[in-house]
Amino acid sequence: MFERFTKDARAVVLGAVGHAERLNAETVEEQHMLLALLDREASRASFALTSLGLADRRESVKRALAEARRRGGLSRADADALSGLGIDLSKIVSRVEEAHGEGALEAERKGAERKGAGRGKGWWSGFVGGHRPFTQGAKDVLTESLRIALAQRDRYIGDEHLLLALAARPGVPAEALADHGVTYASLRRVLYGGGEAKAG
Amino acid sequence: MTEATDLAERAGDRDPRIGLRAVSALRRLLEQLEAVQVRSARNQGWSWQEIAAELGVSRQAVHKKYGRQ
Q1: Which SUPFAM superfamilies match (chain B) (predicted)?
Q2: How far apart are CA A117 and CA A17, in angstroms?
């Protein structure tokens, strides 16, 4: 299957591994894929992001991801759900940081995300070298990108399909993008023109 | 009614998505808090046995999960 990935899409997957390494994460997560997408130049995804005004705001998206890492990788929707149980996530984060140092939760994500992150079973295993497994969420993005490409009748999987897949799935990357005006629907608009959005 | 109590009502009550998401978020948060505490205990010289006893799990379980750090 991975032979259908374009050069840009492969660069995103490999770039995600690189970002995971740089951030000392034991697993490759969706946020690392978004970081890799933000690195792309002159690709379909970077064209779409630029069209939506993100060209000069990439750093701001990266900051939003860093902020989420500090919250232990929990999204705002997660924080809202927790507050529904009477749990104040920001209070927990600040207590933990008081006792164990700034970024303590971020530092401890490594083991936590390993669960469900198998290695080397899926069709993508062929081109993801190294020893860092992809999390279930990151694998789901790859699978979703394939689905989106098929639905679009594209005969390849490009980095725009990866970007669409990230935007379509609830979580930290989609929230960070949406805060900067990049949603599944707005991406479809600039990539494919008017047509109605088929949400993932 | 504040947003929080509104959410609380939905979490306890009507919308399963909110409640399920809260449980999932809590589980992830729990994993990270556990890792923070285990590391802290190790740094203070606690044995795996002592940590396991506090967590209410076997020594093997806690060592397997955190031992390679």
Answers
A1: Sigma3 and sigma4 domains of RNA polymerase sigma factors (SSF88659)
A2: 14
